[in-house]
Amino acid sequence: LMKLSTLSTLWDYISRAMPWNAPKSLSPDEVYAVTAFMLNLGGVVPADFSLSDNNIRDVQARLPNRNGATTAHALWPGRELGGKPLADIKADACMRHCEPGRVPSVVSQIPDYARNAHGNLAEQNRLVGAQRGADTTQPQRPAGSMVALAALGPAPATAVEPAKSASPLAAALANKYSCTACHGMAQKIVGPGFTDIAKKYPGNVNYLARKIVDGGGGVWGAIPMPPQAIPEVDAQLLAAWLATGASR
Predict the structure, then answer these.
(1) 146 secondary structure, DSSP code
(2) 191-242 pLDDT tens trace
């Protein structure tokens, strides 16, 4: 609450995202009550205060950082900057000295000292959404490890042949790992349809397996695909299924 500049932001976040295991299940009155409870913990309102749509504007004026919102930091253009960001955010990404034949990808990793500091992330997921948290009880897997010894070009026909008989299993894995929350069979949801992926990357098993596990973005639109914490054998099977046409 010390950093919060707009009370409506807190109200909206609680309304949309809480409780963790059942987001959007709170009534408006319950959201007001939780918000008031947090305000009291921060010393903004007394314990017996009743927050509502009638007085939320008055409480906004009590926030310690109510005047903290500004665009003077140049993270995006503002009037005081003449509508142009500062030069330090215009730098081009360095793509020199990259390993030949490798496709760059953006990944995130947890430092070893913090990897399991708050319990296993894989066991702390919502009941909605496609992302499954990383298994932080296991060591960090180096980015791109699935293709460290594999070429990114089309895989040999023998490498993808088993998927033809494993289509039902691969489709079941797509449901198990909530791939279908973001990908339709033929239609785009958040990401492209499975058949569109299959048409774009025929035979590219290793490339698709790396994308499944390490995530990536910029190919199908602005929304990136986060890394997926699934066993490599399952990622390879899903990739082989996609590489051979994603048949049902």
Answers:
(1) G
(2) 899 999 999 999 999 999 988 988 888 888 878 888 888 888 889 899 999 9
Strand, helix or coil for residue 91? coil
**Alpha carbon distance 103, 95 (integer Å):** 11
Structure tokens at 221: 């639109």
Cα gap 85→73, rounded to integer Å: 9
Quick check: 215 and 226 in contact, CB under 8 A?
yes
Which residues, including other chains, have CB under 8 Å from residue 244's CB and lie 6 or more apart?
160, 163, 164, 198, 202, 203
Task: Report the residue count for the chain.
Answer: 248
- Whole-angstrom Cα distance, residue 33 to residue 8? 14
Beta bridge partners of 183: 188
Torsional class of 138: left (φ above 0), alpha (ψ -120 to 50), beta (otherwise) = beta
Which tokens in the block code for residue 30? 């319950």
Are the CB atoms for 128 and 21 separated by under 8 Å? no
**Entry pTM:** 0.39
pLDDT digits (tens, 9 = 90+) for 9-47: 999 999 988 887 788 889 999 999 999 999 999 999 999
Phi/psi at 3 (nearest 5 deg)? -95, -15
Q: What SS3 class is residue 196?
A: helix
Maximum CA extent, the chain:
71
Residue 77 is encoded by which pair of tokens? Answer: 């253009």
